[in-house]
């Protein structure tokens, strides 16, 4: 584990800042996970998720998607909006590919991708485009229409899925109407499953969100952990 040895290190790989969220268990199960940020950047919550996965034996890498705009950690959506809009399919693909290449230098035999909010949109695309062997999306928008130029919509990606994928969505998420979830259920492949959490809003898994739903979050996390244990093998 020479190249990635350390705890919460920041390195640059192919020009992309990447956080390494490791502990003594990281990489012990032979699998890696690309963890993709929310609108807020690579913040403490995302690192906590990374630590939880590393503690289960995964080698976790977090590409910083906002690095071209100063790589901020954001708390206000007005500040996040221009950072999000500056992303393109090309830049996202480049940054995720750098994380994949970093994992490829290590003895991992399978790779998963997990993302929240806008990162959930990226993880759905990554699962459909061959980036990962399995993927999980938490409330990723852009289902009916792509969020970024050069990247397919979520529904288009879902129709191309050939690897196992889970989607976690709250039924009270005003940014992702249930009609789009109905469409997602219709177009997704047999390798995919969509979970709906009654009454949960957007960002229900994030304890820093006003929409945090502890019960839905615990259920979704348990499903995620079990899913990766079943689909990523060392």
How would you characterize this protein structure?
It is built from seven helices and eight strands. It has about 230 residues and is of the alpha/beta class. It has one domain: Rossmann fold, CATH 3.40.50.1820. Strands 1-2-4-3-5-6-7-8 form an eight-stranded mixed beta sheet, with helices on both faces. β5, α4 and β6 form a beta-alpha-beta unit. The mean pLDDT is about 95.
Query: What is the percentage of strand-forming residues?
Result: 15-25%
Count up the domains. 1
Q: Termini distance? A: 14 Å
Q: Give the total of beta strands.
A: 8
Mean pLDDT: 94
Strand order of the largest sheet: 1-2-4-3-5-6-7-8
Helix percent reads 25-40%
CATH superfamily: Alpha/Beta hydrolase fold, catalytic domain
InterPro entries: AB_hydrolase_fold, Dienelactn_hydro, Dienelactone_hydrolase-like
Domain Dienelactone hydrolase: 29-230
Organism: Gordonia jinhuaensis
Pfam families: DLH (PF01738)
Descriptors:
234 residues; Rossmann fold; globular; alpha/beta; 8-stranded mixed sheet; 7 helices; 8 strands; 35% helix; Carboxymethylenebutenolidase
SSE diagram, text form:
Elements: E1 9-13, E2 16-21, E3 31-36, H1 44-54, E4 59-63, H2 77-85, H3 89-104, E5 110-116, H4 118-128, E6 134-138, H5 154-159, E7 165-170, H6 178-187, E8 192-197, H7 214-231
InterPro entries: AB_hydrolase_fold, Dienelactn_hydro, Dienelactone_hydrolase-like
Protein name: Carboxymethylenebutenolidase
Pfam families: DLH
